Amino acid sequence: MSEVTLYTRRDCGLCDEAADELAALRHELGFALRTIDIDTDDELRERFNDVVPVVAVGERVVAQAPIAPGSLREAVAAAIG
To answer: Which CA distances in Å does 74 have to 10, 38, 49?
Structure first.
């Protein structure tokens, strides 16, 4: 089973939207979902500070803000094959 990681932060409306969309897609596309708050890690905060939410499949970033409606499904589906 593929693992999808959502890099997020507190009080981020776009992050909440991405989390909701990924939760809905999780069962349809068959992946495990992990959420990481970038503000708990200096390296992640430096890397993703201006582009959260960020969605990765394995180590590969497949989407980052701004995420167009509907594009997240396509990006994740293509990455997990």
So the answer is: 26, 24, 24
Of 45, 46, 43, 63, nearest in space to 54 by CA: 63
Q: What are the helix (H) ranges across 10-69?
A: 13-29, 42-48
Cis preceding linkage at 69, omega within 30: no
Supply 81's token pair. Answer: 């094959």
Both tokens assigned to 10: 């507190």
- Which tens digits make up the pLDDT trace of 29-74? 999 999 999 999 999 999 999 999 999 999 999 999 999 878 999 9
Helix segments in the chain, DSSP class H: 13-29, 42-48, 71-80
